[in-house]
């Protein structure tokens, strides 16, 4: 999909909306995103199967509507969907992706403290129960303003009932051990077995950094490679 198709989708679903510019905003493993007029994000699925594409975008639109009611941080709120094209459009959430900012580690503790308050539901003392979580809380999906204040969390495609330690593991991977400690301290509910939570988070961090490194090398996206190599120092210390 390119500029003409994006303009056509916007014209069909937002009558009267004047499109002045369409810019490629980014592409991941599952979606390609376009920025329209600097204020609207039009995201298109890469799923080749039309039926699965439609079901996925409808599910995510319903999910985002529910998340917007409970999330303490801004999240994308759909302006329109086009299920047949696998398209979800939403007003741009303010801020820049942490993945684009090389100074993020110096601010990791404060950012992770905010995100710890954002994550929900505790594991029990003897193990863990599945909880609702973002399930892909890497720095590419965390937006911040020039003062390094978290302004939003985007890309809820993978949200699910999961081990609560998984998203903490991604914070460990991308922001370091001090950051994940800060996140655990601001977790929005009590955690009886913090040691077990941290142990699982470290495991997920080590697994996911290898996945990100492989993705970056395979796709040519050097920012994922650079982020993964930097994280190896604390994930696999000598």
Write a brief structural summary.
The chain has helices spanning 3-13, 50-70, 108-118, 165-175, 177-185, 194-219, 222-235, and strands at 22-27, 31-36, 40-45, 78-82, 87-91, 96-97, 131-133, 142-144, 150-153, 160-162.
What are the key terms here?
238 residues, alpha+beta, five-stranded antiparallel sheet, three-stranded antiparallel sheet
What does this structure look like?
- It is a single chain.
- With 238 residues, the protein is α+β, with helices and mostly antiparallel strands.
- It has 2 domains: 3-91, Phosphorylase Kinase, domain 1 (2-Layer Sandwich); 96-235, no CATH class.
- Helices cover 43% and strands 18% of the residues.
- It contains 7 helices and 10 strands.
- It has helices at residues 3-13, 50-70, 108-118, 165-175, 177-185, 194-219, 222-235, and strands at 22-27, 31-36, 40-45, 78-82, 87-91, 96-97, 131-133, 142-144, 150-153, 160-162.
- Strands 1-2-3-5-4 form a 5-stranded antiparallel sheet, with helices on both faces. A 3-stranded antiparallel sheet has the order 6-8-9, covered by helices on one side. A two-stranded antiparallel sheet has the order 7-10.
- Helix 4 crosses helix 7 and helix 6 runs antiparallel to helix 7 (222-235).
- The longest helix has 26 residues, at 194-219.
- The model has no long low-confidence stretch (mean pLDDT 90).
Main sheet overview: 5 strands, antiparallel
- Percent of residues in helical segments? 40-55%
Given the structure, what is the number of helices?
A: 7
- Overall radius of gyration: 18 Å
Which structural category do the helix and sheet elements fall into? alpha+beta
Shape: globular
Task: Give the strand line-up of the largest sheet.
Answer: 1-2-3-5-4
Number of E-state strands:
10
SS strand fraction: 15-25%
Topology as H/E string? HEEEHEEEHEEEEHHHH
Number of domains: 2
- Average pLDDT works out at 90
């Amino acid at each position: 999909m390119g500029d003409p198709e994006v303009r056509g989708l916007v014209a069909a679903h937002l009558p009267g909306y004047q499109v002045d510019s369409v810019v490629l905003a980014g592409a991941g493993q599952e979606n390609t995103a376009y920025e329209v007029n600097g204020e609207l994000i039009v995201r298109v699925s890469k799923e080749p199967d039309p039926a699965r594409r439609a079901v996925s975008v409808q599910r995510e639109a319903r999910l985002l509507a529910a998340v917007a009611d409970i999330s303490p941080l801004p999240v994308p709120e759909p302006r329109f969907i086009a299920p047949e094209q696998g398209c979800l459009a939403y007003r741009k959430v303010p801020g820049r992706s942490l993945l684009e900012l090389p100074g993020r580690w110096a601010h990791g503790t404060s950012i992770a403290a905010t995100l710890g308050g954002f994550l929900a539901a505790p594991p029990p003392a003897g193990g863990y129960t599945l909880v609702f979580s973002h399930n892909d809380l890497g720095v590419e999906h965390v937006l911040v303003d020039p003062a390094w204040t978290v302004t939003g969390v985007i890309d809820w495609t993978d949200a699910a009932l999961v081990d609560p330690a998984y998203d903490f593991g991604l914070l460990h991977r991308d922001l370091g051990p001090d950051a994940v400690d800060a996140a655990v301290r601001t977790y929005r509910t009590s955690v009886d077995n913090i040691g077990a939570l941290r142990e699982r988070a470290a495991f997920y961090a080590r697994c996911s950094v290898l996945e990100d490194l492989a993705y970056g090398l395979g796709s040519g996206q050097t920012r994922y490679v650079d982020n993964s190599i930097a994280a190896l120092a604390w994930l696999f210390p000598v």
